[in-house]
Amino acid sequence: MRIVLSLFIFLLLFVVLPRPAVANSEYVLPYPSTMPGGALYKIHAISEYIQRYWYFGNFGQFSYNLKKSDKYLVEAKTLFEYKQYLLGSRALSKSDSYFLKIKASLSEAKNEGKNISEKIKLFNSAIEKHKEVLEQIRKDVPRDVLWSPEKDIPKKIMLHQEIAQAIALRTMLYE
Length: 175
Fold this sequence. Notes:
Blueprint: H1 2-16, H2 41-54, H3 58-81, H4 85-111, H5 117-140, E1 145-147, E2 155-157, H6 159-173
Antiparallel strand pairs: 1-2
């Protein structure tokens, strides 16, 4: 009986005690939310459009654009994993668009004399994490894809080129 009890306690401690985890970056991307094709995706898009006005001021816009850039990067990664290359490409483009707006928010805040040092640190961490994720995506996706919709003209998607542009954008904005 003692052996069983000792074994039980050992297993319980093994399961309960935290174990160290390894990460390349301290910056954490969000869990993917609703995806294109989902029932709530359009409602989520409308909500996102309205939220844009809730985040006012330079720092508010910084936070909003960073959150949306992160969201669409995770969405792109997930879609690429499921071989939804056209939707993934669109999500990556949205992520890039929001990412460009972040730098403008910081520049405006700096011109107004605000202390942006903490935001710059966060922005640089985000850049590193984004580049890390983009490099991983590039390893996992084919160079080019011919997307053939049922009732439309096939479209060639140059995935590696799009990902390289996304990495270059983030590298260009790195401070």
